[in-house]
Amino acid sequence: MSKPSIPQGTRDFSAETVQKRNYILNTIRTVFELYGFQPLETPAMEKLETLMGKYGEEGDKLIFKILNNGLAEPQNADKAKAGFDKLLQGKNTADLTERALKYDLTIPFARYVAMNHGQLTFPFKRYQIQPVWRADKPQRGRYREFTQCDADVVGSNALVNEVELAFIYHTVFTKLGLKDYTLKINSRKLLAALAELCGGTDKMMDITMAIDKLDKIGLEKVKAELEQRGLTAAQIERIETYLAISGNNDARLTALEKLFEGNDIAAKGIEELRTVAGRTKNINLQIDLTLARGLNYYTGVIFEVKGPEQVKMGSIGGGGRYDDLTGLFGVPDIPGVGISFGVDRIYDVIEELGLFPAELQLGSKALFFNLGEAESQLAFEQMQLLRDAGVACEMFHEQAKMDKQFKYADKKNIPYVIIIGEREAGEKKAMLKELKTGKQEAVAFDELAAYLQLRNTKTTK
RNA sequence: GUAGUCGUAGCUCAGUUGGUUAGAGCAUCAGAUUGUGAUUCUGAGGGUCGGGGGUUCGAGCCCCCUCGAUUACCCCA
Question: What is the pTM for the complete model shown?
Answer without folding.
Answer: 0.87
